[in-house]
Amino acid sequence: MMMSSTVIRLSKVLIGVGVGVLLLCVLAVSATVTDRLLTLPLIEVGGLWLKAVTTIMNRTLAIFTTMPDWYSWTTYVYLLAAALICYGIYIVFFTPLNRIRKLCDVGYLTEGDLSKKEIANNVMKRRMVGDIPPVYPNGWFGLIESFRLKRGEVKSIDLLGLNLAVFRDEKGEVHALDAYCPHMGANFAAGGRVIGDGIECPFHAWRFRGEDGKCTHIPYCQKIPEIAKVKSWPILELNGWIYLWHHAEGIDPTWLPPELEDIANGTWTYRGRTEHLVNSHIEEIPQNGADVVHLAHVHGPLLGAGVDLRYMWSKVWGFGHHEWQAEWEPQSAPNEHIGVMRLGHSIQCFGNLFSIIGMNVTARQIGPGIVYMEFTSSFCKGVYIQSLTPVEPLLQKLVHNVYVHWTIPTFIGKFFLWGEAVQVERDIMIWNNKRYESKPLLVKSSEDSLTARHKRWFSQFYSKNSKRFTFQRDKLDW
Question: Rounded to two decimals, what is the model's pTM?
Answer without folding.
Answer: 0.82
